[in-house]
Amino acid sequence: MTPMNPLSETDGCRGGQTRKSFLARMFLSHPATFYPQVACVIFRASIMARLGRYGHDDWVGSSASVLRACGNVGMRCEITGLDNLRALDGPVVIIGNHMSTLETFVMPYLIGQFIPVTFVVKKSLITYPVFGAVMRSRNPVVVGREKPREDLITVMEEGVKRLENGLSIVIFPQSTRSSAFKPSEFNSLGVKLAARAGVPAVPVALKTDAWGNGKHLRDFGPVDPAKPVRIAFGPAMPVSGRGADEHAKIVEFISSHLRQWGVPVTER
User: Fold this and answer.
1) Kindly report the CA angle at 7 between 250 and 163, in degrees rounded to 5?
2) Of 48, 128, 181, 218, most Cβ neighbours within 10 A?
3) What are the structural domain ranges in the chain?
4) What is the 3-state secondary structure (H, E, C) of the chain?
5) pLDDT tens across 59-86, in order?
């Protein structure tokens, strides 16, 4: 896989950044243009997906465009630990907290430039009128979020299939997106999947509240470029037994980074 303008440890959102005219930079820099920019990316991707022409590299490119939109409106991004992804030589389970819609859109670029990847997603994401076609094309593991036992079986069976075929999986074990982190609500499904498939687990800490959650439409909340976007990937860790020790290490990795970034962490 050939990455497009690959990232290094970086400060400032970009993603295959291209030169723009002065007028374009002035127009695109206003926060009110953020959602129109993202909508254009989604519509183009949806058309390609419906035509069966939307592959992994296209998804990486779309994700890079969303990251570029973040930079256009002034969001500052601090992304660390990319060398941990660069060092991977096989599929992994990437396990992180879930703060906003932003990570769903930008992580395909951050991860996908190094390894093929998909997500564990709730069913509603594949039924959205426009974005659903994009998500369906990426072979996600789909859960209903209504019957936990059935979701567990689905993740274990379908997740293992993806991993055996060389496709890494991103999973957010929290029940919902949250601007705070509660370790007691961060279940061990990710490490259980890694253990079942015999692949390493990679922790990722996410502070993405610059793209806020909306009150009525969760995916369309306020955009605040003054809030820095911070994403940190940890090293891959083999999972032994049922993964209790590794789960504790992942929780601590996420908690310590979030505390450092000023994000509330509720103790167990």
Assistant:
1) 50
2) 181
3) 75-260
4) CCCCCCCCCEECCCCCCCCCCHHHHHHHCCHHHHHHHHHHHHHHHHHHHHCCCCCHHHHHHHHHHHHHHHHHCCCCEEEECHHHHHCCCCCCEEEECCCCCHHHHHHHHHHHCCCCEEEEEEHHHHCCCCHHHHHHCCCCEEECCCCHHHHHHHHHHHHHHHHHCCCEEEECCCCCCCCCECHHHCCCHHHHHHHHHCCCEEEEEEECCCECCCCCCCCCCCECCCCCEEEEECCCECCCCCCHHHHHHHHHHHHHHHHHCCCCECCC
5) 999 999 999 999 999 999 999 999 999 9
98-130: pLDDT as tens digits: 999 999 999 999 999 999 999 999 998 899 889
Residues 6+ apart with CB under 8 A from 26: none
* pLDDT band at 25; cut points 50, 70, 90: very low
